[in-house]
Amino acid sequence: MTSAGYDSPLKNAKTKARALRYIQIILCALMTVGCVFPLIWLIDFSLVKANELFGKNFLVWPKEPHWENYYLALTDGKVPQYLLNSVFVSFVSVGLIVLLSVMMSYGFTRMKWRLSKVFLNIVLLGFMIPIHATLLSNFITFSRLHIQDSPMALIIPYVAFNLPQATFIMTGFMDSVPKEIEESALMDGCSILRLLFTIVFPVLKPAVMTVIITSFINVWNEFIMAATYLTSDRFRTLPFSIYNFAGMYSSNYSAQFAVMTLSALPSLIAYVILNKHITKGIAAGAVKG
């Protein structure tokens, strides 16, 4: 067979690979547009007047942005008050989730005890428990403990429902970390707590960042528990701004879009900043041994 006969299949393979690559790029571009466009549409309609929403154009770029929508959102929507409540609840919840998941994953993967696998599986069973199944029982329990209308009524279930996922990520990453560093530190007289927070914790940074951003998004956007447990306006979180504002300005959709934009902005910024850590943490935790 001539060299031309060998070159032909090779060229066909390269052509197919190049075509497949272009198809993947086009599909990724379409998916990106599909994910980003709702955000652009939301910001666009939050800057126009209410009477400009209904027209022939799918997007209406205002000549002069109507910032009054955001003024209404910040004043009547009580965004600053609810924002501070959400920041407090999210900060405490995510901090406890990270702390408990690191300690639990270390206990499950590094400490040798008889029922470690059993208790790990019990913790991971939390994946199977839906939020709605615990609303009534938690409401009764929190009412009897007199914490029903307080931040603790949100922090406790937020930690409980996000801890299984966090522990799963941490244990997967912990299995890929060599034990020699910890063993040498223990031989030098390092205590368990010092070992955990000065040696293990920095090594777990990719997994910790993954847990932080996933837990933060879950806690920040949660509304069902907040609507069930919180009755007074004092402790309500940011999703209530959208809920209350939709009733106050039911016909002013532009102002409602402004509230939605302000509510989505913190989680969007956090995701953009920490996105690379999510990919690194999940990829590293998927490789064991």
Describe the structure in your own words.
The chain has 2 domains: 3-45; 68-285, MetI-like (MetI-like fold). Helix 9 (205-221) packs antiparallel against helix 12. The longest helix is centred in the N-terminal third of the chain and has 43 residues, at 3-45. It has 289 residues and is mainly alpha-helical. Helices cover 73% and strands 0% of the residues. It has helices at 3-45, 68-75, 79-109, 116-124, 135-144, 152-174, 180-187, 192-203, 205-221, 224-229, 239-248, 253-285.
Give a brief description:
The protein has 2 domains: 43 residues; 218 residues, MetI-like (MetI-like fold). By secondary structure, the chain is mainly alpha-helical. Helix 1 runs antiparallel to helix 12, helix 3 crosses helix 9 and helix 6 runs antiparallel to helix 9.
Tags for this entry?
mainly alpha; 289 residues
